[in-house]
Each structure stands twice: as structure tokens, then as C-alpha cells.
Design brief:
The protein is mostly helical. 76% of the residues lie in helices and 4% in strands. A two-stranded antiparallel sheet has the order 1-2.
């Protein structure tokens, strides 16, 4: 039972966080309640915390990593997530810290004109971080870095009335764009050389 739950959570953790992020603006429009958006990020934090806790518990008890292949494809051909003791504990700590941030944001959002977008970016940041930690595929790491980066750029510039915030975000985005371009070029070279982007194979 715990084994099946751990595998399901490994595969669904990041996609469900993405679903919560994308549904937050829609729910905000339908409900017309400013507090609902804050509760969405708390919901994301609770989901991530429970999921990461179960995954890490299974790894510790069974003393072996979880390898999950999306779509039933073997890891060499498809995108796979691999969670072991190290990235499992980092993911668990990341989830707990996010939950604390989400709870704090229920108070902090009163300073924002549009808190819904703050929470969307916050949940996107969590999805990107957990995706980076759990992925076992070098290309999927690139995708998750982009998700994490775009969310971070938006959060840095969220106080758009402050010129220093916008400037900092622009510099951050420029450096990030250069870095991800170099990383993507490296992926092309790696795939051309080894014929795979699976981290275990590499």
C-alpha cells in the first residue's frame, strides 16, 4: 500500500502542483474572494509536504531509491524521476519551508494589489524546485530550471512600482537566459555523443 502510494506521489507531485498553479487565477475569478488564492498556495504546500514525507519514508524504510517512468516508458527513452535518500530529504525540507512561507503569505499578501499572481508564481517556484530535485533526465532538468527561473524572475519583480526590483529581475533574467542557453547547447552535445539524456545512463 505504502509502496504504491509512494510511486503514485512521485509521478504526480509536480504535475498536481502545476495544476494548482494554473487553476488559481480561474478559481480567483470564480470565487471573488481574496483569501482563496492564499489558501491555494497553502494547499500546494500541504500537498508537497505530505507527498515528500511519504516518498522519503518509503525510501528510508526500504533503503532503495524510487525510479518512476512517466507514461510507462523505460527511463532510457522516456522522462523518469529518481528519488534517493539525498534528494528525498532535500525535497522534504523544501516542502516544509514552502509550507511555512505559504502560511506567512496569508498575512503578507495584504501588501499586494494582485495577490493571485504572487501565489501562482510561488507555487510555480515550488513545482520547479521539486522537479529539479526529483528528475532523472537532463532535458527535464532544463525544463524545470526554466519553470523555477521564470517564477523567480516574476517574484523578484513583483513590486513593479520599485525600479530596483524591476532592474534586479531584468539582470537575473538576462543571466539566467545566458546560463540556460549554454546548458541547452551542452544537452545537444551530450545527446549527440551518448544518445541519451538519462542521468543514470550517463
Amino acid at each position: 500500500m505504502i509502496e504504491s502510494l509512494a510511486y503514485v506521489l512521485t509521478g504526480s507531485l509536480v504535475p498536481v502542483l502545476a495544476l494548482i498553479a494554473f487553476s488559481t487565477p480561474l478559481i480567483d475569478k470564480l470565487v471573488q474572494n481574496r483569501k482563496i488564492t492564499g489558501y491555494m498556495s497553502v494547499l500546494a504546500g500541504v500537498w508537497a509536504t505530505i507527498g515528500s514525507s511519504v516518498i522519503y519514508y518509503w525510501i528510508v524504510v526500504n533503503e532503495k531509491p524510487i525510479v518512476y517512468g512517466f507514461g510507462g516508458w523505460p527511463p532510457h527513452f522516456g522522462i523518469g524521476y529518481a528519488v534517493d535518500g539525498l534528494n528525498g530529504i532535500i525535497g522534504l525540507m523544501t516542502s516544509w519551508v514552502f509550507l511555512v512561507i505559504a502560511l506567512y503569505s496569508l498575512w503578507y499578501e495584504k501588501h499586494f494589489d494582485e495577490p493571485v499572481w504572487y501565489h501562482v508564481l510561488l507555487i510555480g517556484l515550488l513545482a520547479g524546485m521539486l522537479g529539479c530535485l526529483y528528475t532523472g533526465d537532463a532535458f527535464n532538468l532544463f525544463v524545470m530550471l526554466e519553470v523555477l527561473g521564470i517564477s523567480a524572475y516574476g517574484l523578484v519583480a513583483f513590486h513593479k512600482e520599485r525600479s530596483e526590483a524591476v532592474e534586479a529581475s531584468a539582470k537575473y533574467a538576462l543571466i539566467g537566459a545566458v546560463a540556460t542557453t549554454i546548458y541547452f547547447t551542452a544537452l545537444v552535445v551530450i545527446y549527440a555523443t551518448f544518445g541519451s539524456l538519462n542521468m543514470g545512463v550517463l
